[in-house]
Amino acid sequence: MSERINRACSFNRLFLGAFLVSCLFSVEPLQAGPDDDANTAKSLADMLRAARQVISSNQTRINDPNLGDKGLTGQVVLQQAVEIFKKTTGTDPASIDPASRLGRLMHAQMDAIVEATDANQATINAKGVGFKAFIPAVFARLVNESFESHAKSEAQIKVTAPEQLVRNRKSRPDPWESEVIRGKLLQADWPRGQAYAAEVDTKGRPAYRMMMPEYYAGSCLSCHGSPKGETDITGYPKEGGKEGDLGAIISVTLFKQ
Ligand code: HEC
Questions:
Q1: CA-closest residue to ligand 1 atom 38
Q2: How far is the CA of 23 from the centre of ligand 1 (A)?
Protein backbone atom coordinates (compact mmCIF):
# COMPACT_ATOMS: atom_id res chain seq x y z
CA MET A 1 0.00 0.00 0.00
CA SER A 2 2.49 2.56 1.13
CA GLU A 3 4.40 1.97 -2.10
CA ARG A 4 1.71 3.87 -3.87
CA ILE A 5 2.28 6.98 -1.84
CA ASN A 6 2.33 9.89 -4.18
CA ARG A 7 2.34 13.60 -4.14
CA ALA A 8 -0.79 15.08 -5.56
CA CYS A 9 -0.20 17.75 -8.13
CA SER A 10 -0.19 21.24 -6.79
CA PHE A 11 -2.96 23.34 -8.17
CA ASN A 12 -1.84 26.85 -7.64
CA ARG A 13 -0.99 28.40 -10.97
CA LEU A 14 1.46 30.68 -9.21
CA PHE A 15 3.51 27.61 -8.43
CA LEU A 16 3.68 26.14 -11.87
CA GLY A 17 7.21 24.97 -11.16
CA ALA A 18 6.11 22.97 -8.16
CA PHE A 19 3.17 21.69 -10.17
CA LEU A 20 5.42 20.29 -12.87
CA VAL A 21 7.87 18.82 -10.40
CA SER A 22 5.13 17.18 -8.38
CA CYS A 23 3.58 15.72 -11.52
CA LEU A 24 6.87 14.37 -12.71
CA PHE A 25 7.44 12.60 -9.43
CA SER A 26 3.89 11.49 -9.02
CA VAL A 27 3.49 7.73 -8.80
CA GLU A 28 -0.04 7.12 -9.92
CA PRO A 29 0.14 4.18 -12.25
CA LEU A 30 -3.16 2.49 -11.60
CA GLN A 31 -5.68 5.02 -12.71
CA ALA A 32 -5.92 8.43 -14.29
CA GLY A 33 -8.98 10.41 -15.29
CA PRO A 34 -11.72 12.55 -13.84
CA ASP A 35 -12.87 9.80 -11.47
CA ASP A 36 -9.44 8.96 -10.06
CA ASP A 37 -8.57 9.54 -6.43
CA ALA A 38 -6.33 12.57 -6.95
CA ASN A 39 -8.80 14.44 -9.13
CA THR A 40 -11.74 13.52 -6.93
CA ALA A 41 -10.02 14.76 -3.77
CA LYS A 42 -8.85 17.94 -5.50
CA SER A 43 -12.31 18.66 -6.91
CA LEU A 44 -13.93 18.31 -3.48
CA ALA A 45 -11.32 20.63 -1.96
CA ASP A 46 -11.77 23.14 -4.80
CA MET A 47 -15.55 23.20 -4.37
CA LEU A 48 -15.22 23.69 -0.62
CA ARG A 49 -12.87 26.60 -1.23
CA ALA A 50 -15.27 28.09 -3.77
CA ALA A 51 -18.19 27.90 -1.34
CA ARG A 52 -16.11 29.39 1.46
CA GLN A 53 -15.11 32.22 -0.86
CA VAL A 54 -18.77 33.05 -1.47
CA ILE A 55 -19.29 33.54 2.28
CA SER A 56 -16.09 35.54 2.48
CA SER A 57 -17.11 37.88 -0.37
CA ASN A 58 -20.51 38.38 1.25
CA GLN A 59 -19.15 38.83 4.79
CA THR A 60 -19.74 42.59 5.02
CA ARG A 61 -23.28 42.09 3.82
CA ILE A 62 -23.88 39.21 6.25
CA ASN A 63 -22.57 41.38 9.09
CA ASP A 64 -24.70 44.41 8.18
CA PRO A 65 -27.07 45.02 11.14
CA ASN A 66 -29.38 47.21 9.04
CA LEU A 67 -30.08 44.58 6.44
CA GLY A 68 -32.67 41.85 7.01
CA ASP A 69 -33.11 39.41 4.14
CA LYS A 70 -29.75 39.06 2.41
CA GLY A 71 -31.02 36.90 -0.41
CA LEU A 72 -28.27 34.43 0.36
CA THR A 73 -30.25 31.25 0.09
CA GLY A 74 -28.65 27.86 -0.34
CA GLN A 75 -29.27 27.93 -4.09
CA VAL A 76 -27.74 31.40 -4.45
CA VAL A 77 -24.61 30.42 -2.54
CA LEU A 78 -24.34 27.21 -4.56
CA GLN A 79 -24.71 29.06 -7.88
CA GLN A 80 -21.97 31.51 -6.92
CA ALA A 81 -19.75 28.67 -5.73
CA VAL A 82 -20.25 26.79 -8.99
CA GLU A 83 -19.23 29.91 -10.95
CA ILE A 84 -16.02 30.21 -8.91
CA PHE A 85 -15.37 26.47 -9.29
CA LYS A 86 -15.78 26.73 -13.07
CA LYS A 87 -13.33 29.62 -13.21
CA THR A 88 -10.68 28.00 -11.01
CA THR A 89 -10.85 24.49 -12.41
CA GLY A 90 -12.18 24.95 -15.96
CA THR A 91 -14.77 22.25 -15.22
CA ASP A 92 -18.52 22.67 -15.05
CA PRO A 93 -19.84 20.34 -12.33
CA ALA A 94 -22.91 19.82 -14.55
CA SER A 95 -20.65 18.13 -17.10
CA ILE A 96 -19.56 15.44 -14.65
CA ASP A 97 -21.36 12.12 -15.02
CA PRO A 98 -23.63 12.05 -11.95
CA ALA A 99 -23.37 8.26 -11.81
CA SER A 100 -19.57 8.32 -11.45
CA ARG A 101 -18.02 8.46 -7.99
CA LEU A 102 -16.85 12.02 -8.65
CA GLY A 103 -20.34 13.01 -9.77
CA ARG A 104 -21.94 11.38 -6.74
CA LEU A 105 -19.58 13.03 -4.29
CA MET A 106 -19.75 16.44 -5.95
CA HIS A 107 -23.54 16.31 -5.79
CA ALA A 108 -23.41 15.25 -2.15
CA GLN A 109 -21.15 18.23 -1.49
CA MET A 110 -23.32 20.65 -3.44
CA ASP A 111 -26.36 19.42 -1.49
CA ALA A 112 -24.39 20.00 1.69
CA ILE A 113 -23.63 23.61 0.65
CA VAL A 114 -27.33 24.26 0.11
CA GLU A 115 -28.25 22.56 3.38
CA ALA A 116 -25.70 24.38 5.55
CA THR A 117 -26.80 27.73 4.10
CA ASP A 118 -30.52 27.11 4.32
CA ALA A 119 -30.24 25.86 7.90
CA ASN A 120 -28.69 29.21 8.88
CA GLN A 121 -31.08 31.66 7.21
CA ALA A 122 -32.32 32.96 10.57
CA THR A 123 -28.76 33.83 11.59
CA ILE A 124 -27.79 35.30 8.23
CA ASN A 125 -30.93 37.43 8.01
CA ALA A 126 -31.06 38.58 11.64
CA LYS A 127 -31.69 42.32 11.72
CA GLY A 128 -30.09 44.45 14.42
CA VAL A 129 -27.17 42.06 14.84
CA GLY A 130 -23.80 42.97 13.36
CA PHE A 131 -21.24 40.22 13.67
CA LYS A 132 -23.12 36.92 13.53
CA ALA A 133 -20.19 34.49 13.70
CA PHE A 134 -21.31 33.10 10.34
CA ILE A 135 -17.79 33.13 8.94
CA PRO A 136 -16.12 30.99 6.27
CA ALA A 137 -14.51 28.56 8.75
CA VAL A 138 -17.79 27.88 10.53
CA PHE A 139 -19.62 27.55 7.22
CA ALA A 140 -16.99 25.12 5.88
CA ARG A 141 -17.29 22.96 8.99
CA LEU A 142 -21.10 22.86 8.68
CA VAL A 143 -20.83 21.97 4.99
CA ASN A 144 -18.37 19.19 5.79
CA GLU A 145 -20.55 17.82 8.57
CA SER A 146 -23.54 17.78 6.24
CA PHE A 147 -21.42 16.21 3.48
CA GLU A 148 -20.49 13.38 5.80
CA SER A 149 -24.13 12.41 6.21
CA HIS A 150 -24.76 12.69 2.46
CA ALA A 151 -21.65 10.85 1.36
CA LYS A 152 -22.34 8.13 3.88
CA SER A 153 -19.13 6.30 4.54
CA GLU A 154 -17.62 6.87 1.10
CA ALA A 155 -15.73 10.06 1.81
CA GLN A 156 -14.95 12.71 4.40
CA ILE A 157 -13.79 16.29 4.13
CA LYS A 158 -12.39 18.25 7.04
CA VAL A 159 -10.56 21.51 7.52
CA THR A 160 -7.85 21.19 10.10
CA ALA A 161 -4.72 23.10 11.12
CA PRO A 162 -1.44 22.61 12.95
CA GLU A 163 -2.41 21.40 16.42
CA GLN A 164 -1.42 24.53 18.36
CA LEU A 165 -3.65 26.67 16.11
CA VAL A 166 -6.83 24.65 16.33
CA ARG A 167 -9.80 26.42 17.89
CA ASN A 168 -12.64 23.96 17.56
CA ARG A 169 -11.94 20.54 19.06
CA LYS A 170 -13.88 18.91 16.23
CA SER A 171 -11.25 20.18 13.80
CA ARG A 172 -8.22 18.74 15.57
CA PRO A 173 -5.90 16.75 13.31
CA ASP A 174 -5.96 12.98 13.76
CA PRO A 175 -2.62 11.21 14.26
CA TRP A 176 -2.00 10.73 10.52
CA GLU A 177 -2.89 14.36 9.78
CA SER A 178 -0.60 15.55 12.58
CA GLU A 179 2.24 13.49 11.20
CA VAL A 180 1.77 14.87 7.67
CA ILE A 181 1.55 18.44 8.99
CA ARG A 182 4.70 18.05 11.06
CA GLY A 183 6.72 15.81 8.77
CA LYS A 184 5.76 17.27 5.38
CA LEU A 185 3.73 20.46 5.16
CA LEU A 186 5.62 22.38 7.86
CA GLN A 187 9.05 21.39 6.56
CA ALA A 188 11.01 24.33 5.21
CA ASP A 189 11.66 22.54 1.91
CA TRP A 190 8.02 21.53 1.33
CA PRO A 191 6.94 23.13 -1.97
CA ARG A 192 4.46 25.84 -1.11
CA GLY A 193 0.89 24.99 -1.89
CA GLN A 194 1.66 21.41 -2.80
CA ALA A 195 -0.76 18.82 -1.49
CA TYR A 196 0.38 15.55 0.07
CA ALA A 197 -1.49 12.34 -0.63
CA ALA A 198 -1.12 8.71 0.40
CA GLU A 199 -3.01 5.48 0.67
CA VAL A 200 -3.41 4.67 4.31
CA ASP A 201 -5.77 2.56 6.38
CA THR A 202 -8.21 4.85 8.16
CA LYS A 203 -10.81 3.75 10.70
CA GLY A 204 -9.90 0.19 9.79
CA ARG A 205 -10.51 0.69 6.08
CA PRO A 206 -8.16 1.29 3.15
CA ALA A 207 -8.41 4.90 2.04
CA TYR A 208 -6.84 7.53 -0.19
CA ARG A 209 -6.07 10.66 1.81
CA MET A 210 -5.08 14.09 0.59
CA MET A 211 -3.95 17.13 2.59
CA MET A 212 -4.06 20.48 0.81
CA PRO A 213 -2.18 23.25 2.66
CA GLU A 214 -3.41 26.84 2.89
CA TYR A 215 -1.59 29.85 4.32
CA TYR A 216 -2.74 32.82 6.37
CA ALA A 217 -3.51 35.88 4.29
CA GLY A 218 -3.63 39.38 5.75
CA SER A 219 -7.41 39.06 6.10
CA CYS A 220 -7.06 36.11 8.51
CA LEU A 221 -4.96 38.01 11.00
CA SER A 222 -7.69 40.15 12.57
CA CYS A 223 -8.60 36.88 14.29
CA HIS A 224 -5.59 34.55 13.98
CA GLY A 225 -2.85 37.19 14.19
CA SER A 226 -1.23 39.32 16.91
CA PRO A 227 -1.04 40.12 19.71
CA LYS A 228 -1.11 36.44 20.60
CA GLY A 229 -3.67 35.75 23.33
CA GLU A 230 -5.72 38.87 22.74
CA THR A 231 -9.41 38.05 22.32
CA ASP A 232 -10.69 38.44 18.76
CA ILE A 233 -14.20 39.42 17.67
CA THR A 234 -15.34 35.79 17.92
CA GLY A 235 -14.22 35.42 21.53
CA TYR A 236 -11.21 33.18 20.83
CA PRO A 237 -7.65 34.15 21.76
CA LYS A 238 -5.58 35.12 18.73
CA GLU A 239 -2.92 32.62 17.73
CA GLY A 240 -0.15 35.09 16.86
CA GLY A 241 -0.13 33.89 13.25
CA LYS A 242 1.74 35.72 10.50
CA GLU A 243 0.92 36.19 6.86
CA GLY A 244 2.20 33.18 4.92
CA ASP A 245 2.19 30.77 7.88
CA LEU A 246 0.60 27.37 7.29
CA GLY A 247 -2.83 28.12 8.74
CA ALA A 248 -5.20 25.53 7.35
CA ILE A 249 -5.31 22.16 5.66
CA ILE A 250 -8.20 20.74 3.69
CA SER A 251 -8.09 17.03 4.45
CA VAL A 252 -10.00 14.69 2.13
CA THR A 253 -10.45 10.97 2.78
CA LEU A 254 -11.79 8.67 0.06
CA PHE A 255 -12.57 5.21 1.38
CA LYS A 256 -11.98 2.29 -0.93
CA GLN A 257 -15.11 0.33 -1.65
C1 HEC B 1 -13.60 36.77 12.18
C2 HEC B 1 -12.50 35.99 12.72
C3 HEC B 1 -11.82 35.01 11.82
C4 HEC B 1 -11.18 35.26 10.62
C5 HEC B 1 -11.04 36.58 9.90
C6 HEC B 1 -10.64 33.99 10.20
N7 HEC B 1 -10.94 33.00 11.10
FE8 HEC B 1 -10.34 31.10 11.06
N9 HEC B 1 -11.56 30.65 12.60
C10 HEC B 1 -12.25 31.57 13.34
C11 HEC B 1 -13.11 30.88 14.29
C12 HEC B 1 -14.05 31.51 15.28
C13 HEC B 1 -12.90 29.49 14.08
C14 HEC B 1 -13.59 28.33 14.79
C15 HEC B 1 -14.71 27.88 13.87
C16 HEC B 1 -15.51 26.74 14.39
O17 HEC B 1 -16.28 26.92 15.32
O18 HEC B 1 -15.39 25.65 13.83
C19 HEC B 1 -11.93 29.40 13.01
C20 HEC B 1 -11.46 28.21 12.53
C21 HEC B 1 -10.48 28.12 11.57
C22 HEC B 1 -9.95 26.86 11.10
C23 HEC B 1 -10.42 25.46 11.48
C24 HEC B 1 -9.58 24.86 12.57
C25 HEC B 1 -9.91 25.46 13.90
O26 HEC B 1 -9.08 26.24 14.37
O27 HEC B 1 -10.96 25.16 14.49
C28 HEC B 1 -8.99 27.17 10.19
C29 HEC B 1 -8.14 26.19 9.44
C30 HEC B 1 -8.97 28.62 10.06
N31 HEC B 1 -9.88 29.16 10.92
C32 HEC B 1 -8.15 29.31 9.18
C33 HEC B 1 -8.39 30.61 8.81
C34 HEC B 1 -7.79 31.26 7.67
C35 HEC B 1 -6.76 30.60 6.76
C36 HEC B 1 -8.32 32.50 7.59
C37 HEC B 1 -8.09 33.55 6.53
C38 HEC B 1 -8.34 33.14 5.17
C39 HEC B 1 -9.24 32.65 8.72
N40 HEC B 1 -9.24 31.48 9.43
C41 HEC B 1 -9.93 33.81 9.02
C42 HEC B 1 -12.17 32.94 13.21
C43 HEC B 1 -11.66 33.58 12.11
A1: 220
A2: 31
